[in-house]
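fyi for ur records
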Amino acid sequence: MVFMGLTAFLGISAQTVTTPANNLPTPVTTTAPQEDPLKVTETEHDFDKIPQGKPVFYNFEIVNTGSKSLKLDDVHASCGCTTPEWSREDIAPGASAKIKVGYNAAAEGMFEKFITITYNTNQTKQIKIKGTVWRAPEGSGPANASVDFLKKQTF
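which gave:
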């Protein structure tokens, strides 16, 4: 029992606490997290059903809610069938801009594509388009016997 008390006493006295020279507590500084200046009014757009072979487009609206100019460095799609277009100009505080996203509906079936917005050098945000592509009929319309007859005529 005496041995345990002596060990505890030596363990406590061996610990040292470093304090500043004036013996005042060291202030802890914390930085408030920066607010995200880029607001996307709609982060997802559903094209619903679209015909195969007909490109479709949608404009996503973005707003600079910060107090400094906002710079879109890159807008990159997850595949080549999706093409984003945006202005390379800075967006002033409180101003808005559009990101036009096109989708080439070449393949039949459901699709979901992600577009990554890189802004202010190292910040990113994602938007998404989705829908279902239905197969378009083989021809532009039903066969017309009168048109075939006129094509065979010589004038």
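The two ends are 123 Å apart (CA to CA). thats all i got for now
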